[in-house]
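Comment thread on ticket #2218

A.B. wrote:
> Attaching the input chain for the structure job we discussed in standup.
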Amino acid sequence: MQAIIIAVDVSPEADPVIEALRTIRVATKTKVVLAHVLPPLVSEDSIPADVPRKAGDRREQALEAEQYLESLADDVADALEDAWDGEIAIEVASGDAAEEIVRLAGIYDADLIVLGSRGLEGMNRVILGSVSTQVVESAKCSVYVCKL
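C.D. wrote:
> Ran it. Output below, let me know if you need it in another format.
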């Protein structure tokens, strides 16, 4: 494998995704990319005037996500075999989650994407959509979906 994209939320729900790495045989020099996608920015034109916003909110979200991903790097290294000696990269993107995950996979020429699924059902799945389903349908590489 050349690269693996590990897409996680900034939450304890990332743990099963990291644990899933223990079930994958990863080549010694495989690059691991820890990724998080922030929701797309909302246009100033579409934000109601009575919604408070702070200029630094977006930067703070990105910084928090980056720090969280950096804290997961040791867990990722532990989950991979002792023989693994690859590099871990951190990516925080903004936009549609599925599109950004697939885009990152293309940039890194990933062989595998690992992400979680909350298992939405019924109307929630129809209304909210499923990032994991969209990634499976759009990705040019294999996708490992972990039940959260």
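A.B. wrote:
> Thanks. Noting for the ticket: The chain has five helices and five strands.
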